[in-house]
Specification:
7-stranded mixed beta sheet; alpha/beta; about 200 residues; homodimer; two-stranded antiparallel sheet
Chain lengths: ~200, ~200
């Protein structure tokens, strides 16, 4: 199944389905979309649509085979080897992300950080390695890393971005408030935390 | 003008318009949507729509009076006194947000953090105050704060949320991976950083 174009909203619900199905796998060999919807307080149409984007429809009167659906969800959330990411900029935000445990839910792991202020290898609080920035190339090559996260000040962001692209990073998540220039094959997601907070403020009733 | 329902995408472009207009205010007394669109590489329709959501249309053949448009943008981005926020959870992420300078672009400021592990007042690297959690009530009341940010572990998030609501916080930005229960008048925005990274990974070409 091609799950490339799954929406962000659907993707956000997949770990919830997975967690629920794992909790009932011993007692329910099969489960219907209605059953899942009722248990989670979601709409039935939404559940059918979400699950339809990752696997075939359930069978009439039976629904989904629980173990098969669990396997499909696991595969969608962490099937490939592209889940390893590196981060450049080991300031407070960078180290917070480096040590954040929640990425594993999506089969993702930030395996190392790089920082130009680091001279020899260091460790984060949770023991993740932080290397000098100049070592990024060899590291990405050896570990087949394709996802990069930028948490450096905006003045340094484009240079870091260029170095990532040169080293086969093809997906970049940037927290620097600057528009990055990248080749066509590279996808960039700009995170603007100030904008998120401003948007929340606008919603005050 | 009621700018309550401005979209997040539009809101994201307002600081770009403002920056551009400030840079040309000496040479251009008036400016057209076409002129702005060309200068910024935006579509004309988009510029008209964005500006239409914060002020009246420009006049035919003249466009907008530059100073008036600057004033409208400034008002929309920081007019009211609701721009002060507090944060609970002074770990790495909390302190990174506390010291982040980019919020001021939207007239926002995180004025203090609170943490249950803090016994007496402390300071962040940039000199922002970090208080014991028990002091949140008095602080919010004295400073008329209505925006709260939650960066505590998920186990503590609902309790922190309840305390915020009790102290007149009506907009909550939560980084804890848990669905918070709040009264109807409170707006909650859930930030799921793992989901953002997972979504980026799905877009790899």
């Amino acid at each position: 199944m091609n799950t490339d174009y799954i929406s962000k909203a659907t993707l956000g619900r997949l770990p919830i389905y997975l967690q629920y199905l794992r909790s009932v796998r011993m007692e329910k060999r099969s489960i219907s979309a209605t059953g899942i919807a009722n248990a989670l307080g979601f709409g039935e149409v939404q559940v059918r649509k979400d699950l339809g984007s990752i696997c075939k429809r359930g069978k009439p009167k039976i629904g989904y085979v629980t173990e098969e659906l669990i396997a499909e969800l696991e595969m969608c959330l962490r099937c490939d080897s592209k889940g390893q990411a590196i981060i450049v900029g080991a300031g407070k935000l960078g180290q917070a992300l480096l040590d954040y445990a929640g990425f594993s839910e999506y089969g993702l792991e930030i395996i190392a950080a790089f920082d130009s202020r680091v001279q020899n290898g260091e460790c984060s609080e949770k023991g993740k390695p932080i290397y000098p920035f100049r070592e990024i190339g060899g590291f990405c090559y050896r570990n087949d890393v394709h996802i990069g996260i930028i948490t450096v000040p905006k003045e340094a962001a484009q240079e870091v971005c260029n170095e990532m692209v040169k080293n086969n990073i093809c997906a970049i998540w940037s927290f620097a408030p600057i528009i990055l220039t990248v080749p066509d094959h590279v996808v960039v997601m700009q995170e603007n935390l100030a904008l998120s907070l401003a948007h929340l403020k606008k919603q005050i009733k």
